[in-house]
Amino acid sequence: MGPALMVTIPIPESVDAASLSVDLDGVTYRLGFRWNARASAWFMSLATEDETPIASGIKVVADWPLLRGVRGGLRPPGELLAVDTSGQQTDPGRDDLGRRVELVYVEAV
Question: Is residue 1 part of a domain?
Answer without folding.
Answer: no
